[in-house]
Amino acid sequence: MRYLAVFNGGLTLHFYLQWTSALLWTPVYFALQALYFVFLRTRGKVCTARDTYIACAMFLVLLAWFIWLPALMLLEQDTALRISAAAGLGCLMVFLIRRSDRLMVMIYGEILLVGVTLGAVAFLVLPQVSSLSAKSAMLVCCVALIVYFANALLEGRKMRLDAERASERTLQAQKMEAVGQLAGGVAHDFNNILTAIIGNLDLYELTDERPERDDMVRNAKEAAERAATLVQQLLAYSRKSNLQAEARDIEVMLERVRVLGARLIPASISLEVVSTHRQNWVKVDETLLMTALINLIVNARDAMPKGGRIRISAMHRHFDSPELMADGHILQPGNYVELTVADTGTGIPEAVLDHVLEPFFTTKPVGKGSGLGLSMVLGFARQSGGGLTLRSSVAGTHISIYLSEVDPPAHAISHRAA
C-alpha cells in the first residue's frame, strides 16, 4: 500500500503541477528501497556491526529522500498540496513510531531528519506571516510536534525492549520448567527400570532353580529393552536420532501401516486408510516414520475404549506463506505431504491440550504410558524438516505430520512409465 501510494502521489503531482522532480522522486525512492531490501536479504546468518550501521545509513538516506517532497509541498500556496503534504508527513511519523527501532543511532537519526525538515519549513514559512502572535504559535506548535515525536520514538523503543526482555524471561522460565520435567521423567522411568533389573539380578543370586533363574534373566532383559526404547524416544524428541533418510512412497508405507495397525486394535475399532491415488514421495527414515504412525494409532486406540474409527490419510499440501505448527515452530513455504491420523474418541481435554507435546506428560494411568509418544512424533517430524499440528474436540482428535515432498527417484519414474 505504501508503494502504491508513493507511485500514485508522484504521478498525480507530475500531472497536477508538471513537476519533473515528482517523476524523479518516485523511481529513485523505489530504487533505494530495492537496494535496501537486497542488502538486508544478502546478509549472513550473523549480522556484523558494520552491516548494521550500513543498513541504518541506507534507511536514513531512504527516509531523507522520501521526506523532501512533502516538505516542498508545504511551502506551496495551494491548500490541497499543503493538506496532502501534512497527511504524508503524519503518516511517515506514525510509521516511524510503529517501527520502534532498537538502535539509538536510528532513533537519533529519525528525530534529526524530521526535526530539521519541520524546522526548515517553519523557517521558510515564517517570513510570510505578519502577525507576531501567529509566528509565536507556529514556533510553539513546531517545537511541540518535534518534542512529542521524539518522546514517542524513545517510549516506543523502551516498550519494545521491555517486551523483548519479558519474552526472554518467560521463554527461559519455560525452558527451565521443561528441563525439570524432562529430568524428573527420565529419573523416574530409569529408576523403575533399574529397580527391575537390579531386583531380578539379586534374586538370581539367591536361587539355584534353573526355571526361576531363566525367568529373572528374561525379566531383566525386558527391563533393559524398555530402557533402550526410552533412549530412542528421547533421541527422537531431542532430534538427535541418526536418520537413515531415503525417498519413500507414502502410499506404500501407508499400506504397511494398515497391516501393522490392524493387529494393534480390537474388533470394536475400524481402521481406514484413505488412498490419494497419486505418488507422494518424501525423504524420511522409514523405521522412524512407521514408529511415529504406530504411536499415533495406539494413542487413538486408547482414546476409544468403547470403540470407534481411526482414519489415516495422506494429501499433498502447498504453503505460499509460513505455517504455524502446534509447538510454535514455523514451517517454511513449500510443498509438503500431510499425514493425518484422526479418531472419533472423546478428544483431549482443553485444560491439558497445551501440554500433550511435552516430554513425559501423559493422561494415562501410571504404568500405561511414558508420555514420550507424541514428543517422539514431534521430534521426528522436526528432524525430518517438517512439523506437526494437533486439533481436538469432543468429536475426536486429528494429528497431522507434515513432511517435505521430494521428486520420485529415477527408478520409480521409469517403472511407472513402463
What does this protein structure show overall?
Keywords: ATP-binding, Membrane, Nucleotide-binding, Phosphoprotein, Transmembrane, Transmembrane helix. It is an enzyme of class 2 (transferase). Its EC number is 2.7.13.3. This is histidine kinase. GO terms for molecular function: ATP binding. The protein is of the alpha+beta class. It has 3 domains: 2-128, no CATH class; 176-237; 245-414, Heat Shock Protein 90 (2-Layer Sandwich). It has 11 helices and 9 strands. It has helices at 2-17, 20-41, 49-74, 79-99, 104-125, 132-206, 210-237, 250-262, 286-302, 373-383, 410-417, and strands at 245-249, 269-274, 281-285, 308-319, 323-324, 330-331, 334-343, 387-393, 396-404. Strands 2-4-7-9-8 form a 5-stranded mixed beta sheet. A hairpin with a 2-residue loop joins strand 8 and strand 9 (396-404). Helix 3 (49-74) packs antiparallel against helix 4 (79-99). The chain is elongated. The protein starts with a helix and ends with a helix. The mean pLDDT is 83.
Keywords:
Heat Shock Protein 90, 62% helix, 9 strands
Number of domains: 3
- The top-level CATH class of the largest domain is Alpha Beta
Strand segment count? 9
CATH topology group of the largest domain: Heat Shock Protein 90
Assign the structural class, choosing from mainly alpha, mainly beta, alpha/beta, alpha+beta, or little secondary structure.
alpha+beta
Which CATH architecture of the largest domain? 2-Layer Sandwich
Name of the CATH homologous superfamily of the largest domain: Histidine kinase-like ATPase, C-terminal domain
Radius of gyration: 33 Å
* Strand percent estimate: 5-15%
The strand line-up of the biggest sheet is 2-4-7-9-8
DSSP helix count?
A: 11
